[in-house]
Amino acid sequence: MKTPVLHTDLTPAQRLCLDDLPLSGHHLVSGPPGSGKSLLAAHRAVHLALTGRPTVLLSRSRLLSQLLRDTLKDLAIPAAPVETATVHGWINRRFGADAPRTGDGWFDWTALIHRAAATFGEDDSGAPHLVIDEGQDLSPGFYGLARLSAASVTVFADECQRLTETNSTLAEITQTLGRSTGRTEIGGNHRNTREIASLAEFFRTGGTRPEIPLRSGSLPVVRHFSGTKEISEEIATLSLRNPRDRVGVIVASLRTGADLLRRLERAGLPAEPQLYSSAASTGRYRDLDLARPGVVLVHRESAKGLDFDTVVIADTETDAATDPTSAALRMAYYVMITRARQRLVLGWQGNRLPGHLEGLRGWATMK
């Protein structure tokens, strides 16, 4: 059974990707940053919900889950509701707040798989369709559990963007879900300029080389700052010059983020700056309005799946002691850089340019 595409703004390749996905079975859709995986995940969830079975759109990140929920509002069909949840939240509802955990704070996947297997096949009428965004950040153990707990599993992932220790390669995802898992690739980069995408290529760790966009813009900037005060002034200037834009400030430390927030709150910006903290249980540091213009400060671990007109990576000097060839370091910068749509600034403090930025001459303006 096929369902109609619900959004006319999808590209022909994105529409074809959705149309070719059967409404049963397990599927893995891979693609580079900017290919529209999160948007496709939301569409896929609505398509599956139209079958009448409960459908859950999952992500590891709470901030990404919030963004996906906002995306679904534009696709809402009252007769086909889609639930958005984090993996933590879904498992706690499925297995209870006492779901067994391991020493690292994550779940004991083996114990949960045994629980799910004990009731497997008894009554699958309530088994949901699961759609998972940024699926590379979840472990093979999770996919073993999903295979037993869901009517179908559709995963959107890019193994060049694995930032967590509990991650999976594309091969591990398909092996765990089963040999019959369908594989689809979606290409294109509809987010970055040619200059930003080219700089990101400097840090990409593997996989097929993605298409470089035709849309051109200004060169990214690598800029030395004397301190947090000067960084906040640069962020405020960028926001004031582009009042309709969203400015994402990515930090390695929430202490730095909080310091920048205090300074920006006194800068007279037209929109109140926002800071996201994964430690906040409610309130202004948890529930953000990601659609409105203005400044949003996020930790690196929460940047996955987001995009901004302007991105400022504020404190690259925190990586100065890290081996520039480290795959983890390169992957982190690949993810952060590809959050930017129009403008990109990589800031650093100290007496010497961090080693991982030394090779960027020609790819960026050095200030």
UniProtKB/TrEMBL annotation:
Gene Ontology cellular-component annotations: cytosol
Gene Ontology biological process terms in this record: recombinational repair
Molecular function GO labels: 3'-5' DNA helicase activity; ATP binding; DNA binding
InterPro entries: DNA_helicase_UvrD/REP, P-loop_NTPase
Superkingdom assignment: Bacteria
Protein name: AAA family ATPase
Annotated organism of origin: Streptomyces finlayi
